[in-house]
């Protein structure tokens, strides 16, 4: 009798402990993990049924795990190989050694430069799953690019036409439209602080954000530092970089480390500057739980970007080396070959100028099919 009494007490205590633990776990899931999943089931639970409670908790934990985004590494690697567009290896015929009569060793094949060997991005990365087609410029100027050259309806219609051309040319890579806005503009006058750059007012940046919203586009804020530097200018745009659809571009052409006036000589940025910018953006991504940002670096000469082999893409920041040169198709391809293909960082970009690419009457603007023949294929396209 006594043993039965203590056995019943023991079983009761075990049951009480089980219920308390189960309820605490359920409350944790309810308020901190997946309230949207649990809310519909709370009223249907039989609290006296241990099996039912355990099943509900098991289902909800599984649902939460399924909601965590994971990068599809296989799809990512496959897309990178597609973009690399490497030529098939050439067949090499074995040669005979005249002394021994046996075959000579086959020459060692050079490894492909692309895809670039770098880190995987966090889940939710835009590249390489989508191609970005961007319009570049500043709303104050009709001379700095197509973004400000035309009134908004005409500009958006032209951008939409380019998006459709690219979607037709490469249906395997959906196009994401973008507005690439020069938010810090290098200028001929020194300005009050002698830095030869003008920061655009918030109202102008917000105009671009509103225009982009109309077409579900992303936004790039571009920085031409003049005699300032990225360490000063990037933090001033932090409130915009906290937005999930805002990314960044930096233009070495107007980074005047020698103290020369912008436009007199071509400027330069070093890997140190670009890595600072990427790390700053990465911090914003982590602190605000954002998907990866994109950093576009303009380039058309070797010295515009020094120590490019030391640039470090991060899981939070994807880096595009963007061929920014103008001229006829042959010249542009040559520039792309030397300063993008031969110095891989992560992704490749290519700029097309509606006017200055047409140097002679025989020149025509390169079309998507032309650029898709390049190795690597550019994933970021900019029109000026």
Briefly characterize the structure:
Helix content is 37%, strand content 16%. By secondary structure, it is of the alpha/beta class. The chain is globular and about 80 Å long.
Contiguous uncertain segments of 5+ residues: 1-6, 33-45, 60-66
- In N-to-C order, the SSE pattern is HHHHEHHEEHEHHEEHEEEHEHE
CATH C-level name of the largest domain: Alpha Beta
- The CATH topology of the largest domain corresponds to TIM Barrel
Strand content: 15-25%
SSE-based structural type: alpha/beta
What does this structure look like?
There is one protein chain. The chain has helices spanning 2-33, 35-38, 50-67, 73-84, 146-149, 152-169, 202-214, 230-233, 238-241, 271-287, 329-341, 368-371, and strands at 131-137, 175-186, 197-199, 218-223, 246-250, 269-270, 293-299, 305-306, 317-323, 347-352, 380-383. With 384 residues, it is an alpha/beta fold. It folds into two domains: 2-67, no CATH class; 131-383, TIM Barrel (Alpha-Beta Barrel), CATH 3.20.20. The strands form two sheets. The protein has an eight-stranded parallel barrel with strand order 1-2-4-5-7-9-10-11, surrounded by four helices. It has a two-stranded parallel sheet with strand order 6-8. It is globular. The relative contact order is 0.10. The model is unreliable at 1-6, 33-45 and 60-66 (pLDDT under 50).
